[in-house]
Automatic annotation (TrEMBL):
UniProt-listed InterPro entries: AB_hydrolase_fold, GCE-like_dom
Species for this entry: Asticcacaulis machinosus
Protein name: 4-O-methyl-glucuronoyl methylesterase-like domain-containing protein
Signal peptide from the UniProt entry: 1-22
Keyword Aminoacyl-tRNA synthetase: no
Domain 4-O-methyl-glucuronoyl methylesterase-like: 163-366
Keywords carried by this UniProt record: Hydrolase, Serine esterase, Signal
Length: 417
């Protein structure tokens, strides 16, 4: 019955998706149906207890083996220093600080910058990844640069002021921190380059050092390594009583959106996720024929995923899992997915269908999952919300507005356990 229901949901999505490309998703692994992987056979999932205790551990193992690589070996980062950068940041709304965390075992030096509202806490917090360093997140050049400096593309954003229009460029680099502070949210930022620089020629050795015992074909990929960065920031924030450990949200766009959604699947301390335009290897189904394909992404960015993922480039239908099951690992925590009409490379339709196919897992836990009937009108109070806006790849002011409204709906009202 659950398998048939999931199929009906997918077919319904194809009917409701305006302008979407009809896809045959008949080979999509059912989220709750029987599953066989390397001789391990599991029956259909009939309760959330079975999902949590039997299916989820297997899925986490498969995603590490076949898609993201083996996660870093357990090892905490040590706090080296913590400094106050600005007592009255953003017109006196918050206190800007920076911490430096290191791990000799992992060869990582992580700079975490964060601004805390001046209002009484503990505060909900949004953790963001900085494309162009923490200085760009908070518009403060006193903050440390990431390892290896800044990517070349960051030069065009230097001194770019926030835009009052829906220009997708400034808010890709810097979130509306002042608006977040006014709503009562703390903001923390880290640079993925502090963990591993996004360069296929140099990334493999640092990735190997994060988990040197992983088999070669299951070598940790940069996406999961960056996702691990969110968890390390949470390790630090949970030592500070100014932050609420039950209201920790993460945001990521594009490649960082892939990192965010994978991070939430493996770390239950993450309470809410906004994965924006995350595409293949993020929220969009690997089996989808629209936009960037598995062969494109593993060919262009071989360091992003486990080498095993490239084996499915010629036929993604052979994958034993797909991204709706990754979303299922986030259930029942709130997930917001954003997309742009002109951003077909990131496959908005594949993310929409993944959200629908993951909904039975949310329902199994007593939640509703995705409830909206069109892609363009999100239900921001739902457990899974999706929006399709006009425009291209990038993050706009209205994208952030929806994210803040989504957090308000889930963090400022009582939520079902």
């Amino acid at each position: 019955m659950k398998k048939n229901y999931a199929t009906l949901l997918i077919l319904g999505a194809l009917t409701l998706a305006k302008g979407g490309i009809a896809q045959d998703m008949s080979e999509l692994p059912p989220a709750l149906g029987p599953k066989v992987y390397k001789g391990v056979s599991l029956p259909e999932v009939r309760s959330y207890h079975e999902w949590h205790n039997l299916r989820a551990p297997l899925l986490k193992s498969i995603f590490q083996t076949e898609v993201y690589g083996r996660l870093p070996t357990p090892n905490s980062l040590n706090l080296i220093s913590k400094t106050t950068v600005d007592e009255a940041a953003f017109g006196g709304l918050g206190r800007l600080e920076e911490a430096v965390l290191t791990s000799d075992a992992h060869k990582v030096r992580l700079h975490v910058a964060y601004v805390v509202p001046k209002t009484p806490g503990p505060h909900p917090v949004v953790i963001v990844t900085a494309f162009c360093g923490n200085g760009s997140t908070f518009s403060d050049n006193r903050l440390s640069l990431p390892a290896g400096g800044l990517p070349e593309f960051c030069a065009r954003f230097k001194n770019m002021p926030p835009s009052a229009t829906d220009d997708p460029d400034p808010y890709l680099i810097a979130p509306p921190v002042e608006a977040l502070l006014k709503r009562g949210y703390a903001v923390a930022s880290f640079s993925t380059a502090d963990i591993v620089i996004d360069d296929k020629a140099t990334a493999i050795i640092p990735l190997h050092l994060l988990n040197p015992t992983a088999p070669p074909n299951e070598r940790l990929g940069a996406i999961a390594a960056w996702g691990w960065g969110y968890s390390k920031v949470i390790d630090f924030l949970e030592t500070d009583p100014r932050f609420d450990p039950k209201r920790q949200a993460i945001y990521g766009h594009s490649r960082n959106g892939k990192a965010a959604i994978s991070a939430a699947a493996f770390d239950k301390r993450i309470d809410l996720v906004f994965a924006h335009q995350s595409g293949r290897g993020g929220a969009s189904l690997s089996r989808s024929p629209v936009g960037e394909q598995v062969s494109n992404i593993t060919g262009g960015f071989p360091h992003w995923f486990a080498p095993n993922y490239a084996r499915y480039g010629d036929d993604p239908n052979r994958l034993p899992v797909d991204q709706h099951e990754l979303i299922g690992l986030i259930a029942p925590r709130p997930l917001l997915l954003g997309a742009g009409v002109d951003d077909q490379w990131a496959d908005p339709e594949g993310a929409w269908q993944a959200a629908i196919a993951a909904t039975p897992v949310y329902q199994l836990s007593g939640h509703k999952g995705l409830t909206q009937t069109t892609r363009e009108t999100p239900n921001l109070s739902a457990d899974i919300a999706y929006f399709l806006r006009p425009g291209r790849h990038g993050t706009t002011l209205s994208d952030w507005g929806r994210f803040m409204d989504f957090m308000d709906a889930h963090f400022k009202t009582p939520r079902k356990p």
